[in-house]
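[User] I have long wanted to understand how a fold can be written as tokens. Those tokens are not coordinates but codes from a learned vocabulary of shapes. Could you go through the record with me and say what the backbone is doing? Thank you; the sequence and its tokens follow:
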Amino acid sequence: MTEDKKMTEPEPGSVPEQAEEKAEEKQLNAVEEKEEKRENGGDRNGEAAGSARPAEDEFVHPEGGWGWVVMLASMWCNGSVFGIQNAFGILFVYLLQEFGSEDDPDLRFRTAWVGSLSMGVIFFCSPIVSVFTDLLGCRITAVGGAAVGLVGLLASSFVKSLGPLYFTYGVVFACGCSFAYQPSLVILGHYFKRRLGLVNGIVTAGSSVFTVSLPPLMSALLKNIGLQNTLRVMCVFMFVLMLAGLTYKPLLPKPVSSGKSRGRCSALRRVFNVQIWKSLGYRIWAFGIPAALYGYFVPYVHLMKHVEERFGTDANKEVLLMCIGITSGIGRLIFGRVADYVPGVHKVFLQVASFLVIGLMSMMIPLCNIFGGLIAVCLLMGLFDGCFICIMAPIAFELVGPQNVSQAIGFLLGMMSVPMTVGPPIAGFLRDYLGSYDVAFYLAGIPPIIGGAVLCLIPWVEQRERRKRQQKESDADANGMLEQMPGQQGDMTKAENPESVI
């Protein structure tokens, strides 16, 4: 018995070593749990790893000054990029006249590919643009992108057939717009913190202002100077965009990583952040949004031609895009403010409501036999379009946390490129073979409703994940208290080794 007792007794110095090992293990587990919590959006306070956060805390945002110039430059960027894209319905009519033939059964299908490809490429390049912005900075990325967009738009004015427009307008011009657009949103965080919500609302409203003003301007230019010269006039917008990019002077200090391994992981995360995909709520969001957008861009491309066929060529079709633009700007200001009062991920229900209304309004377009009814439909569609756009960033913040918002939005925009590209050509294909746009608009309203239904799962999933995290934390705290209780370790040793008891 004495020998057994001696065998069970720990050697001198082993207990402190075991305690140290347990303490280190506990500390590592706490760090891992904290990191996992932050990656899954649990840490909403924005605590950063390493020494990057203290540098940011010491920085004081100007909240104005040169920042107002940067805000106006960003507003011009947002307006010129998406104003030209949203006004493609005006160009669509003249492209049919310039390059089309009534004997071509796929005329509208092939022509719609120009605008839808351009919009799709803007979103498709977003993940790549986020990497270039991190590596080269906002100013170089934005100015270079505007220059590429200028070249693409100028080249589009010299083409003599529809085929080259796929490359010059649909790829080169759109790629330049994408590289110019994303830095205009990133740079705002260098100058504003307390007023960032207000500034973002003003900047995103720039596209509404241009969507209202560009259609009548482009219609007048197309009638007086033709398609080619109109595209050359549009190059002026891209040249001003280059000058606007020169105002993007970065202010935030670059984060400094602690440790070589931490530095390598940080550099890899800047290229491709896989942590955002660990959040089930974000995965559902990243699937539901693209699923809802297959019919989103269809009215912007085909509504003008539908109005000509239904109400005649003399109908004031440009006023419809103006209605969408005006109410979209109003919606961004109203619902952006409303979202501040909606707690947590429940903000997603605002997007659900916007998709339901947009889907129903798309289905209502063929049913409008009077022009006034079509105006009412466009007013509602624009209002909830602004709701969908303005709360994307707040929802991403709630789902993945502040450290991962940038790439989370970038990857989402990249996934949005596919449905926004294929939707309008499919609608044009249906028009060519069915003789009207009625079925195309009916079908365009189905994806937003389905996507909105999918998004309803996010609050339930996030609540379940939150309960799991809380349970895990409570279990960890209970285990930690047991380990700290005096004599507990000895009792457990006796229970595990009953033969060692005399």
In short: The CA atoms of residues 92 and 197 lie 35 Å apart. The first helix runs from residue 2 to 8. Confidence is low (pLDDT under 50) at residues 1-20, 35-56, 492-502. DSSP finds 23 helices and no strands in the chain.
